[in-house]
Amino acid sequence: MSGTLIAALGLAAATGPVAVSPFSAVGSFDAPPVITWQRALPGPRVPAATHTELGTPVISGGLIYVGSAGDDALLVLDRSDGRLVHRLAAGGPVQSAAVVRDGHVWFSDAAGGTYCYREKDGVLLWKHLGSAPILSSPMVTDGRVLVAALDNVVTALNVDTGEFLWRHSQRIERRLSGPALYGAPTPTPLVIDDQPVLLTGYADGTLVALTAATGEVLWQRRVGEGAYPDLIGQSIDLGDSVIVGGFSGPLVALEPITRAIRWRVDVGSANAPSLGDVDPSSGLPLLLHGGVDGKMRSIDARTGEERWTWDSSTQGALTQPVVTGAGLLVGSSSGGLYLVDPDHGQQTWEFDPGYVLAGVSARPAVDGRQAVVVTNAGRIISLVVPPTEPAWARGDADWQRVGGVDSVADQDER
User: Fold this and answer.
1) How many angstroms separate the Cα of 312 from the Cα of each of 266, 296, 321, 338?
2) What is the Cα–Cα distance from 176 to 349, expressed in whole angstroms?
3) Residue 252's pLDDT band (boundaries 50, 70, 90)?
4) CA 48 to CA 87: how far, in whole Å?
5) Which secondary structure element, helix H or strand E, spans residue 237, and what is its range?
6) Which one is predicted more confidently, 381 or 196?
7) SS3 176
8) pLDDT tens for residues 50-90?
């Protein structure tokens, strides 16, 4: 990316160690937020109505890690104002969430590469180049990095060196009719905690259990149905059952030992459900499912019974809901961002990005009182719940700056 383009976007390239601005969002995301800043992500102007940003942001300390459809890197931003701290170079756009922990940053890109950087200084420790795009997050577990590519191949790498360990290539049954679901991600493998087993999903709707050590196939079961049976969202392990859904449907609770379907709900899934409060009657958390039909449902994890349904009235696929103190924070691929009461399914707040081609396809990130969301128009937006005490009592000049006319919200136009 040229220096001219960086300057035009209001993003300064790092020339050495960059100090992160002091910023505090300590507290709970327990009330409707306000915009504190927004910026255009790097890359060309949006050329068509099909533009989508899938780079889910990750907040870690004073930084935000996020990809962009128009830049071959994982961007590292200052969470106080969205300023670019540095770029972690990749071979293609990063269109999934990074994994940031234990002093390392792991991520994959749309060119098929997987990378491990050192968190403190952005030094590349290793990279592995695959043959197909990767649009899902890596799974880092038990000394391995597991990645799932669009060619229905799951690869295990050594977490310290990136050395190849094993690969599973799934044979996909050809569709009997209709087009393929273009560019749909292969979901991140799920590690079942009480046994060394991975659950992986594929484009023909098949769920496959692999041994974590060698990638050997233990069993497989067809789950997805309809025109687009693709398993896109990651499965969820509830102990005695696994929740998994196809893009056209259904959403099911499957018993891993017997492979029996305990219940099914005929809704489509683009993302994994979230877990809500535990239902006293079943001892299981309620499932909060964002459907491809623009509706969010609260589902009893024991029976599959729908407790309530909220309709975004957008007909766009919903993101995975984020459980916050203010309610369920969820985006729509053809709408905005919403807060919904988890008890009754009533909408309590809405944020309309207000830009052509806006819409939210990537799950928002929440840390403390701050939420960060990326829109399909290529903008990253910070929303913060105002503190309960007045600014003068805290001596917080920064809050007055970002909340008023000096905010960077109006400095960048894509």
Assistant:
1) 18, 8, 13, 8
2) 43
3) very high
4) 26
5) strand 236-237
6) 381
7) coil
8) 678 999 999 999 999 999 999 999 999 999 999 999 999 99
**Nearest alpha carbon to residue 89 among 80, 79, 76:** 76
**What are the CA-CA distances from residue 218 to residues 196, 253, 290 (Å)?**
11, 19, 30
Q: How far is the first Cα of the chain from the last one, in angstroms, to the nearest whole number?
A: 16
Residue 162's region, left for phi above 0, alpha for psi from -120 to 50, else beta, is left
CA triplet 43, 98, 145: central angle to 5 degrees?
A: 130
What letter would DSSP give residue 410? G
How many other C-beta atoms lie within 10 A of the C-beta of residue 336?
19
pTM over 0.90: no
Using the structure block, give the residue that is written with the tokens 């693709």.
230
Using the Cα atoms of residue 186, residue 109, residue 72 and residue 96 in order, give the sign of their dihedral. positive
Report pLDDT digits (tens) over 273-287: 999 998 887 788 999
- CA–CA dist 293, 260 (Å, integer): 27
Range with the poorest average pLDDT among 9-13, 195-199, 200-204, 309-313? 9-13
The amino acid occupying position 313 is S
Strand, coil or helix: 408: helix
Q: Which stretch of DSSP H or E encloses residue 6?
A: helix 3-8
pLDDT in tens, 365-379: 999 999 999 999 899
Q: Which amino acid is at 353?
A: P
Residue 273 makes CB contacts below 8 A (sequence gap 6+) with: 233, 236, 243, 245, 251, 287, 288, 289, 290, 299, 320, 321
Pairing of strands 58-60, 63-68: antiparallel
pLDDT tier at 400, thresholds 50, 70, 90: very low
In this structure, the number of other CB atoms found within 10 A of the CB of residue 85 comes to 22
CA atoms within 13 A on the CB side of 368: 15
Cα–Cα distance measured from residue 393 to residue 3, given in angstroms and rounded to the nearest whole number: 42
d(CA 195, CA 357): 44
296/78 Cα distance (integer angstroms): 32
Output the CA angle 34-316-372, nearest 5 degrees: 30
pLDDT at 45 over 90: no
DSSP string, 119-149: TTT--EEEEEE-SS---S--EEETTEEEEE-
Give the chain's largest Cα–Cα span.
Answer: 67
